[in-house]
Amino acid sequence: MSGKFLLAQISDTHVRVDDDGASVRQLQKAFAQARDYKADLVLLTGDLVNDERDEEYAALAEAIADSPAPLFLMPGNHDDRARIRARFPGHGYLPSGRFLSYAIEQFPIRVVVVDQIVPGETFGVLTEGQADWLDRTLAADRAKLTIVALHHPPFPTHDLLFDQIGLHDSDLFQFVISKHPQVARVICGHHHRVAFGQVAHAPAIVAPSTSWAYGLAVHPGQPIAPRTGEQPGWMLHIWTPQGGFASHFMGL
Ligand SMILES: [Fe+2]
Description:
Elements: E1 5-10, H1 22-36, E2 41-45, H2 54-64, E3 71-74, H3 81-87, E4 102-104, E5 110-113, E6 124-125, H4 128-139, E7 146-149, E8 167-168, H5 170-178, E9 183-188, E10 195-199, E11 202-206, E12 213-214, E13 227-228, E14 233-240, E15 244-251
This protein binds fe (ii) ion.
């Protein structure tokens, strides 16, 4: 690993079975790029599939067999926790409780994944219980630089739609992060476009989707969530002991 740590954040893959394989091919292209860059870890930050269907999870399971590095899953608003558990029994890091929250410990950077989806809803909520879990999990290792990953952006992106369907009660998330200066980055997806913000002291980064990009509606009258010709992609987060973090958009 030579002191470097490369996290391939691949988000909003929205795998389908009725798109002639397009969504899977996009994921495979991202894998090929991540392999070229010798990513240490692949994290899929939610909306793994498009319609919570088991056939879609089966297609995803087949695709990720070709992952270039250890791969971790987390749910987005298009996902079903029970189907994820059922289709990925070998993913032993997934806990047995209601939420799919966990910490990845075996790399130079700690990665803490917090599940804040709400079944049947597009927005996310960090429950009091998950906020407490996040606080306790971060407190368990205050010395190691940490990335916290979630699906919904935990800061306003100023998009008229996505601020309504983002992380509700994000103040609670911000409060928890503010207690843990070792949190160096917060990463998320959901918005299908690259954006940058701040959560307490930590820079926060929204990854694009591998499948399609949404436009930005800042002012009334601007189209809400149109699919644009902007390039889909993924994020490569690179850390070195000397240079710290840099995050790169990787176009597909
Ligand atoms: Fe999505």
